[in-house]
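Progress note, project year one: complex with magnesium ion.
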Amino acid sequence: MAVTDLVERLFESDKRAVARAISAVEDQENDHLKLLTSIQQRLGRAYRVGVTGPPGAGKSTLVSKLARFLNDGGRRVAIIAVDPTSPFTGGALLGDRVRMMELSSREGIFVRSMATRGSLGGLSKTTQLAADVLDAAGYDYVFMETVGVGQSELDIAEAADTTVVVLTPESGDSVQAMKAGLMEIADFFVLNKADRPGVDQSYNAISTILQISHPQMGEERDSEIWSPFIVKAIASENRGVEEVVKGIEKHHNYLTSTNKLLPRRRERIRNVVLDIVAEKLRRSFWNEARLAELEGKLDLVLANKLSAIQLAEDLTR
Ligand SMILES: Nc1nc2c(ncn2[C@@H]2O[C@H](COP(=O)(O)OP(=O)(O)O)[C@@H](O)[C@H]2O)c(=O)[nH]1
Ligand SMILES: [Mg+2]
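Model obtained:
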């Protein structure tokens, strides 16, 4: 299909065209540059929400309930899952997968899983470009789900307007989250599985960490400063879903009223460009001759006849 036809159908929110366009971006097909250029004029309308947290916290469950809730209210919702254990990506129980298929059969909901292959920076870039496609296709919300155990959640936070961290009362969740750097990236928290024992202790533990890391909380509040909060939910029973939507809207309003949304998006675009340039330079740099030079001189470094830094200098000279 020609790019112009694809773009035209994309603008009509044809789901097959949307899927096709995301694949083109993901695989960096020849036409993807033209495609992304053609959709640029349409960008900036979708609101991008990152959802991260430990495996099994209920992220996919929550996102699907959020999508349903928003879609019932007439909004169009897209979901990108960057999570190998996600029902969206096929790594889940059959029942979960059936529910996902049901979800994506709704006209106003689009679900897509993304492979985690490639460099981490590449993941961020690809996710963002896929979100661009969904933005151009007229989705009001783009949710990006990723499991919060490594670097990928930091990429997601960078790609999102609002980042939601999902935790559970399960032992050590909040401590793990703190170690993994999730506390810093959360615009607010969802304490999911509130039907499980230990909810109050978990709530207090997260509050304490928040009070330490955001000392203005509880004092006279500066409207310019955002204070993360905690929303309790039981995603599997559809409870707390509306409160999470309100949390997202509250953060959205905060970003707009303090003129912070555009700088945030500007920073995101900046990082995408840096990523693309770095990848291009890396690819064009490593030709056969340079790889051979590298391999040939490694033994010299091993024998202490050449320093690693000098080898790098020689290669880039
Ligand atoms: N008890 C309980 N189970 C839940 C809740 N939310 C999700 N689950 C279950 O927890 C499991 C993991 O959920 P999933 O959404 O796949 O988690 P993810 O790995 O974070 O995406 C599934 O079996 C869900 O049905 C909840 O609020 N309470
Ligand atoms: Mg999941």
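The mean pLDDT is 87.
Strands lie at 47-53, 77-82, 109-113, 141-147, 162-167, 188-191, 230-232.
No further modelling is planned for this target in the current period.
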